[in-house]
Amino acid sequence: MFFKAAGTEELDAFYPIRPESVANVPKTRFRPRAGKTLSERRWHAAFSGDGHLDMAKVLRRIQRGGIHPSIKGAVWEFLLGCFDPESSFDDRNQLRQERRERYDTWKTECQNIVPVIGSGKFITTPIITHDGQPIEVEGVPVISSIPEKKAAQWMLLLHQIGMYGVPFHAQLIQISLAYVDSRGLDVVRTDPALTFYESETNQAKLWDILAVYSWMDNDIGYMQGMNDICSPMVILFENEADAFWCFERAMRRLRDNFRSDTTSIGVQSQLVTLSQVIKTVDPKLHQHLEELDGGEYLFAFRMLMVLFRREFSFIDSLYLWEVMWAMEYNPHIFLSYETGDSSSDTNTAVTSDQKVLKQCGKFERMNMQNGWSDKNGALSVFLIAGVLETKNKQILKEAKGIDDVVSIMGDIVGNLDAKRACENALKIQNKYLKKAKKQ
Questions:
Q1: Which terminus of the chain, N or C, has fewer Cβ atoms within 10 Å?
Q2: Mind listing the pLDDT tens digit for each residue in 209-260?
Q3: Helix segments in 39-175, DSSP class H
C-alpha cells in the first residue's frame, strides 16, 4: 500500500483536529456516501487483472461523490497524471521506483549543500547573506565556502520556506491584502489545526519536499501558497518521494500562477480570464466591479493561488480538489507531462471521438467539444465566477467599494458546498462558451 491505511469510517480518524482548534475551523460538509463516493471496493474493481484502470468509471464516481479517504492518495496519482491508466501494475511499480531514486538523488544533492535537509529538522533563520556569505546558525553546520549562484539563490529561500514564506509582490496585492493571509503561508503555520503538524518530524517532511522542489525547479523556487498545495500530499503519502511527485504533478497545473517578477505574478493571467468570463456572462456585474475599481478581480487572488484552502475545511478542500481534477481530467495528461509535449493534449481542437470524450472529465469534455483551449481557463476560474453569480444581487445592492466585495466574498468561508460549487461552475462554463461563440 502506497497510501495511508484505512482506519475507522469516521473522517476525523483520518485527519484529526487539535481539540483547541475545533471551534475555529470551517464546518466539514463532506461525508462518504454509499453508491456515490468512490469506495475502496469500487476502486479495486476498476482495475483489470494486469492493472489497466477503467478511468471513465472512476471519473463518474468521483464527480458524483468524491473519494473515500482510505484510497485518496492512490487515486490522486492518476488524477494528477503521475500514472497512465493504460499502464500495468508492473509498469507503475517500475516507474515509482525510478521516481523514488530520482527524488533521492535530488535530495542528496541538497543535503550535500545543507545537511539539515533530511535530518527531521528545518531552518527558520537565514543561513547565508545576499552576497553569499555564510551565517552561523545554532544547530546548522556552517557553510565552508561561498556557494555558486544557483545554490546561493536556493539557500536564501530555505528559511523563508520554514518560517515566513516569500511574499507576493506588494504592488500587486495592495487591494487584495485583506483577502490574502498576511501571516505568510509557511511550514510553521501550515494547517495548524491538524494534529499531524504537531510533530516537528512531519513539519520537516513538508519542508524537505518544498526545499527539494525549489532546488529542482529553480525557475519558480518557492512562493507563499505552495505549502498549502503540498501539505495534503505529505499527509496522504507515507513515502516522502511519492508525496513529492504528487506535489510536482499538481504544480504542473499551478506553477505559472507562482511565476513572478518585480512587476507581475502569473496568477494575473487567470484573473484576466475571470474578468472576461464575468464580462461575457454578467456584463452588469462586471461593470459594477469596474466602477468599484475591482475590475482586475484581485479579491479572487488567494482563491486561485491556494485553490480555496481558506474557504473550506481541510476535508472539504480535498473533496473540492478531487472533484475539480476529475472534471478537468484529460486522458493524455500523463503523456503530456512525461514527454513535455503540450501537443499531446487534444483539447486544442474540436473532437467528436467518443472513446476520447468518454475518458474525459465533464469540464474537459465540454472544452474539447467546443474547441476551447485557454490555458488560463481552469475550472477554478469558473468556480469563482459561479460564486460571484450567486452573490450577484448582494454585490450590486450592497457593495459601495472593493472592501465590501471582499467582505461579501469572505462570507462563503465554511458556507460553500464543494460539489454544488463545481456543478455551478460547469453551468457558467456552458453559458460562457455559448455566448463567446456568438461574439
A1: C
A2: 999 999 999 899 998 889 999 999 999 999 999 999 999 999 999 998 888 7
A3: 40-45, 55-65, 72-79, 89-113, 149-159
Report which of 112, 119, 110, 136 is spatially closest to residue 211, judged by C-alpha positions: 110
Taking alpha carbons only, the member of 376, 390, 378, 373 closest to residue 424 is 390
- H-helix or E-strand spanning residue 209: helix 200-216
Sequence-separated (6 or more) residues with CB below 8 Å from residue 419: 65, 66, 319, 323
The answer to whether 242 and 96 are in contact (CB under 8 A) is yes
The model's pLDDT over 109-143, given as tens digits with 9 standing for 90+, comes to 999 999 999 999 998 888 888 888 888 877 777 66
Bridge-partner residues for 194, per DSSP? 17
> Which residue(s) pair with 53 in the sheet?
47
Which triple of cell numbers denotes residue 229?
498545495
Helix (H/G/I), strand (E/B), else coil: 134:
strand
Give the separation between CA 68 and CA 87, rounded to whole angstroms. 23
- Chain-centroid distance, C-alpha 213: 15
User: What are 137's strand-pairing partners?
Assistant: 140
**What one-character-per-residue DSSP string does 338-384 give?**
HHT-GGG-GGGS----HHHHHTS-HHHHHHHHHT---TT--HHHHHH
User: Which residues 6+ apart lie within 8 Å of 328 measured at CB?
Assistant: 361, 363, 364, 378, 379
The model scores a pTM over 0.85: yes
